[in-house]
Structures are given as structure tokens and as C-alpha cells.
Design brief:
Blueprint (H helix, E strand, L loop, with lengths): L1 E6 L11 E4 L4 E5 L6 E6 L4 E5 L16 E4 L23 H17 L1
Amino acid sequence: MALLMVPHAGFRFTRGEPARYATTAALSYLFCSNCGSSIGSEYVGDENIIVTIGTLDHPEDWPLNQEGWFGHVYVANKIPWEIIGDNLPKHDQEAPELEEKMLAIQRRAEEMN
């Protein structure tokens, strides 16, 4: 799953609002409210949103070498025949940068409660 982090201020959904599922006080996953496809995630108090590249209207506008890419995440769960043919980092689980951001935001959310 390829993820892209972009500022909330410069991003908008073009076909309705996603459904949100809060897994913690700090993290919500975003889903298509019609079909249930995963769209991305957002952290409370963060200025960015994380979106799956395949859900963008024009994913070709975001080549795999642009700023905002963490590389490929959850590659340990990919289908065996899928070949990732670029040189971006490959993470078995979450990208370390996202893990660090999530922990910081979770601490901030706990302080708010």
C-alpha cells in the first residue's frame, strides 16, 4: 500500500466525505462511505492527512520520487506475486516516520483528555 502525506489545507475530497473510524483518541482511519475502501488516516491535531495513492483522482501526478512519500508500507502483507519495482524504502509494517508521529500525537491527545 503506497501512502502519501499531504497538508490538510491543500487537500479536499472530491466525492463526498469519508467515513471515519477512530481506533484511538488520536487516530482515525478513513473509508469510502459507499464501498468501504480504505482511503487513508488522520491524526488529531496534525496539519497533515495520509492518503492511499490509489484513491487519488490523478495518482499519476504524484510520481514515487516526490516529497511526501514514505515508501511502501505493510509489504510483509503484500500478495506474493506483486513486484515493487522502484527504489523507495520498503517497510514490513508502518514507516518509522509515521510511527514516531503517531506516538507524539497520541501523547498530545492523552494530555488533552
